Amino acid sequence: MKVGSNTDRRAAIADAAIGIVAAEGLRALTHRAVDRALELPAGSTSYYARTRRQLVELMVQRLANRTVADLAPAGDPAELFERLAERADDHRVRYALMVDLAGDPELHPLLTTASPARAGFLAAAEATLARAGVPDPAEHAPGFIALVDGLLFDRVAGSGAAGAGIVEAYLRGLRGTG
Known about the structure:
This protein is mostly helical. The protein has a single domain (about 5-175), classed as Tetracycline Repressor, domain 2 (Orthogonal Bundle). The chain contains ten helices and no strands. α1 crosses α2 and α9 (about 135-155) runs antiparallel to α10 (about 165-175). It is elongated. The mean pLDDT is about 85.
């Protein structure tokens, strides 16, 4: 692995950790597994993240940063859903971490209520709802996020529900047209 800075190395470590958890689950996440995935000498990952908790913190921050990058306003709500669904591995890892860290008062909020992506999600949801002609989009943005998150979970868990159709039905209800 060739990277130019400590920031690049931390991002690569976080990406490798996310890949490991997405493919094998949280129990497979070890410093040694990350070293192997990146073809680094043994012990390299622990230089950047001394503890497993620090490794998880790197993943949480990386997931939030990638999600923020995905939140550019979409042309329509279904497009936003599909764009988010493209990062299925990220969402699988986020859901696993949300459950695993439910009792952690510092890290759990970074995946939920205090996520660095939360404000971006709200803004993107509000803008998307406004373009869809929903009255009072700010009031409905949190509910829209909950719906999309539930549909993402359903998609990445493998049931394959028609997310776009559900989003459209929800919007018709909010607009009073359906």
